[in-house]
Amino acid sequence: MTLHSSLSCTGPPTGKNMSQLNKNQNCSFSDVDDLMKIVQLAIHIPTFLLGLLLNLLAIRGFSFFLKKRWPHRAATSIYMINLAVFDLLLVLSLPFKMALSHVKAPSPAFCTLVECLYFISMYGSIFTICFISLDRFLAIQYPILVNHCRSPRKIFGICCTIWVLVWVGSTPIYSFHGKVEDYMCFHNMSDNTWSAKVFFPLEVFGFLLPMSIMGFCSSRSIHILVSRRNHTQDWVKQKACIWTIAASLAVFVVSFFPVHLSFFLQFLVRNDFIVECRAKRNISLFLQLSMCFSNINCCLDVFCYYFVMKEFRTDITAHRPSRVQLVLQDTVTTRG
């Protein structure tokens, strides 16, 4: 069973399924699927190893900043730890995804759990990155107002809300396979999975809305910081902030835009808007490739972690007293 079938096969060939089966009888995807077996192994194994290491290091690093109890860094640290946990979930689901795509799951419940973890981690990352972008924009645009509202407890509450939203939003996964009795995980998706009532809310609220919010917040934040270049003495810190925003936006677009575009194209295929065999084969290849490369997001987020930590260290260095200041402070204290 192939990934193409995971997003196009249905249950017993009756009614609409029978007509679709007849249309696809002369359209083979075997060469695409054979190629993707090699590509998935080549991508998923390094992604698992690097993602596991990098996200564990990120959690450890931001936990260190959080333990130092710096109020102005606690909010960002909580967001980053939350993002790293979602990425870690994706990493841990990859071995099961690779294995269960080729062998039958020990139980339907286990299959559903693995599918839930995979998609929850994807959309949890999307929402977390979106809130990080919104939080940073508000902090840049309204620094005085946000300082009174940006407590660690409230940020922790937002992260908990994200977890609730993605878990509640994962309910359609429980009916991914409909009434199909013999299926493999991530395969044999039912017609209902590709219906407009399921697909469009997922596409709009799961990707288009977060991408619009992030695009607006990122562009406005960069514009504000650049406009302050000649009016600030702390340009090094603001430059690090600009790189953080740009890296986050680039990682988001590269990771999630292609896969959601491929979802839309596959929606057109499953609803018979696209029926030409060559187009279906190309869409199948694009869909599988984009899903593979979207998993690399758990490694690409390390660039966001790097720039945020660099920004933290720049800020710490800027506020750390020099040796001369320490000597003067010690002298004043002794004389007092």
From TrEMBL:
Record-level GO cellular component terms: plasma membrane
Record's protein name: G-protein coupled receptor 55 isoform X1
A GO biological process held by the record: phospholipase C-activating G protein-coupled receptor signaling pathway
Membrane topology listed for this record: Multi-pass membrane protein
Signal peptide from the UniProt entry: none
Keyword Membrane: yes
Domain of life, per lineage: Eukaryota
G-protein coupled receptors family 1 profile domain residues: 54-305
Matching InterPro entries: GPCR_Rhodpsn (IPR000276), GPCR_Rhodpsn_7TM (IPR017452)
Gene3D superfamilies cross-referenced by the UniProt entry: Rhodopsin 7-helix transmembrane proteins
One GO MF term attached to the UniProt entry: cannabinoid receptor activity
Name of the gene encoding the protein in the UniProt record: GPR55
Origin species: Vicugna pacos
UniProt entry keywords in alphabetical sequence: Cell membrane, G-protein coupled receptor, Glycoprotein, Membrane, Receptor, Transducer, Transmembrane, Transmembrane helix
Parts of the chain that traverse the membrane: 41-66, 78-96, 116-134, 155-174, 198-219, 240-265, 285-308
Pfam families according to UniProt: 7tm_1
Family recorded in the similarity comment: Belongs to the G-protein coupled receptor 1 family.
Cellular location(s): Cell membrane
